Each structure stands twice: as structure tokens, then as C-alpha cells.
Amino acid sequence: MNKKPVSYLQTDARWRAKRYPCGGGTMSLGGGGCGPTCAAMLIETLTGRACPPTVTMEWACRHGYVTAGQGTQYAYFQAQLARFGIDCALLTQTPCRSSASPVRAQVERMLAAGYYFVALMGPGLWTRRGHYVLVWAADGRVRILDPASTADARVNGDPDAFFAQAKYFWWVDAREHNRQDEEETMERYDTLEEIAAAAPWAEATVRKLIARGALDGTGAGLDLSADLLRAFVVNDRMGLYR
What we know:
elongated; six-stranded antiparallel β-sheet; Cathepsin B, Chain A; two-stranded antiparallel ribbon; single chain; alpha+beta; 2 domains
């Protein structure tokens, strides 16, 4: 499972009322800074450099990526993250808006491979109009850092509800960040007990494969690499082991 990123709230009392000049007027960080707050969390997580949302909000407004009364433009994320050497792009021009959308399978597959996502949410649980959130994992629930809320339903989202309300996704390449500890801790796993202790993100999938006879969990041992475990988990989340 991916590492949980640094968390910031646009509603933090330290900066929620701070206003910034932007297209057509001004915008407060608390009122319209969800996009820059997601970017701040990603930058600090992936670079190790302190980056509160005041920094990203100021940059977004100064470079014309925030419009008063509307919010952050779609082009912002790739431009902002590129300044810190972080790869990011819009996943697809086709909106999700459905729990059965093929976009959902793409997102879940890439999360399992170590990517993070910024998601634009439409009306529903997360917003009345539009709102950006940071998605960092999916393991039966969609694990979210919501710049405007810490409510359990909004940070541990129901997958069907989440993908039905999500419109667009921007992928962020965090694979090196998310694999570092796994690779340094253990490169191969010889027993189910080792997997449970060092790679809990893969345990349920391996147990399923052992129960179906696809893997031998006795005698000679499992002898599985971390990369193979990740591949098994991706396939499982795509429904190939049902």
C-alpha cells in the first residue's frame, strides 16, 4: 500500500482567510485553494521540502492558474509540479462519473503501482460544485486527503460513490517514493508470515492464490519478489482472481 502523504487543510486557521489576487478579482485560500493545497501536499511529500499551501496558492495566482469565483484551472497541476521535478498529467479527457467506468480500473491499477492522483470531484458527498482532492491509495476504500475535510466518509471513501462522483484525474508519479521502503526492507519473501509482516499490502492476494492452488504456500516456500507481489495485487484489484 502506498505511503500516506503529508496532510494540509486549506481551512487551517493559519491561512484560510488569506486572499490572493487572481483572474477577475481575489480568492481566499480557504474558499478556493483546494487545488494548490493538493499540490502543496504532493510537493512536500515527494521532495522533502517544506511547502505549505500559501506557497502554491501564491504561485498559482501569480501565474494565472486561478480564476476568481471559479477556482483552479486544469492546466495548473502539471505546470506547478513540473517546477519541482515531479511528473504529472491528466489521465484521460474522458470523464469518469461512473462506478463502472474504465477510468476506475486505470486509476486503481496505477494506485497499486505506486502513483498518486489529484481528483476533481463533482456534486455529491465531496462538494456542491467542484472540488480537488488527493487520492493516495485504494484497498477496499479509496484513501483520500481532502483539503477541506477530515470527515471519515470523505477520507475513507466508498469506492462506488467516489468514482460515480469523480470527474477527472491527474496522475502523479510517486512510484520511487512508495517503493523505497519495500525494496529496502526485503527484496524476496519466502513464507506467508514474512509477507504478512513486511508486505501487508499483498497478504490478502497471496492468501487467495494459495487457497486456489495457484501458489504453493507449504513446503518449499513462496520465494516471491516484491515486484511479483505488486503484479499479483494489481491483477487482483482488476478482478482477475475472482
